[in-house]
Amino acid sequence: MDIEQRQSELIEHFVKRASAVSDAAALASVLVEATSHPSLFAFSEILALPNVLQLEATENSAFLDMLRLFAHGTWSDYKSNADRLPQLIPDQILKLKQLTVLTLAETHKVLPYDQLMQELDVTNVRELEDFLINECMYAGIVRGKLDQLRRCFEVQFAAGRDLRPDQLGNMIQTLSNWLSTSESLLVSIQEKIKWADAMSEIDKKHRKDVEEKVEDVKKSIFKADIDFRGHEEICSESGGVMDYEEDRSRPKRRRHPIS
């Protein structure tokens, strides 16, 4: 099963569970379980549920902030706000560090080891590379190359994270620009197709004209050849009669006896 299908199934599973819970404490437990799951990396659908949003300004509001952190934040964000967030369990810490790598990969395709070690609280290169291989690449959320000589991770693919509210406007603008460019490109392609069709018709007409002219020339040559052969035959027959008549009209020589 690919990661996208697995994500979709897990999102549907936790959305149903969270939607069916009315007790705030039980809902908080579901949120902790969702953010701890090793294969779930998208949380916007859960975050949009009405009963989840109702945690705002309640004694369990910290769990709503925790969910927002997993949807949009990083490990550094957690450390900066740890005093007002629930204490994370080891599986959540691992998940948040994985999400941190995805956030860094959104804007940079070459991630220096020093930056990654600082963002992930990793103390040495061996620990960092083990984390990237075992917890990120094997999980299918990133693909890339570890360059020990340059001390960097070259990102080839990274799964997308939930859109932050401030990213929506930029995303809409980007899609609008893409749509406008696509429409212009489509018009240009259609014009080129029309031009190609017109040139094809012109070429066909020219080819037909040339073929007709070739046929006319062939017919003319054939007719001229027939006329020439007929004239030649007539001349040959006339020449034979004249030679015969001339031969008859010539006086015959008498042979003198040899003495």
Automatic annotation (TrEMBL):
It is found in: Cytoplasm; Nucleus. Pfam families: CSN7a_helixI, PCI. The keyword Protein biosynthesis does not apply. Residues 250-259 have a biased composition (Basic residues). Keywords: Cytoplasm, Nucleus, Signalosome. GO terms for biological process: COP9 signalosome assembly. It comes from the Eukaryota. SMART domains: PINT. GO terms for cellular component: COP9 signalosome; cytoplasm. InterPro entries: COPS7/eIF3m (IPR045237), CSN7_helixI (IPR041481), PCI_dom (IPR000717). Residues 239-259 are annotated as: Disordered. Residues 1-160 form the PCI domain. PROSITE patterns: PCI (PS50250). PANTHER family: COP9 SIGNALOSOME COMPLEX SUBUNIT 7 (PTHR15350:SF5), COP9 SIGNALOSOME COMPLEX SUBUNIT 7/DENDRITIC CELL PROTEIN GA17 (PTHR15350). Belongs to the CSN7/EIF3M family. CSN7 subfamily. This is PCI domain-containing protein.
